[in-house]
Amino acid sequence: xxxxxxxxxxxxxxxxxxxxxxxxxxxxxxxxxxxxxxxxxxxxxxxxxxxxxxxxxxxxxxxxxxxxxxxxxxxxxxxxxxxxxxxxxxxxxxxxxxxxxxxxxxxxxxxxxxxxxxxxxxxxxxxxxxxxxxxxxxxxxxxxxxx
Length: 147
Fold this sequence. Notes:
About 20% of the residues lie in helices and about 25% in strands.
């Protein structure tokens, strides 16, 4: 398949069905949500996406990945915020971590890379480190796996 299928995780389904993510996709995106998602929002997305409930009040990432596996997906690149990342970490589903460090110093309040889940730690080894125009791009893999 020339393009990977877009997968979106959203409990609230606060998504714009006219967005190019839906209207210009190679095939309808998969949207994983919860059983308690607003019915009106499910109905609004139904014409442009395949909406799948995976969990009652929060998206069960283990169930979501099992569903993706049944669909033939063997690799998933997750780009999410700290809460979604926290769910994957808590479930032991993080095999790789890619971080970019910009040559900027920014102040303010912020979450960690993961948030909202019980405190969990996972050991990673540096697999690759690239520099481009002052930006550092680091790829870490779970300790004990091959880069």
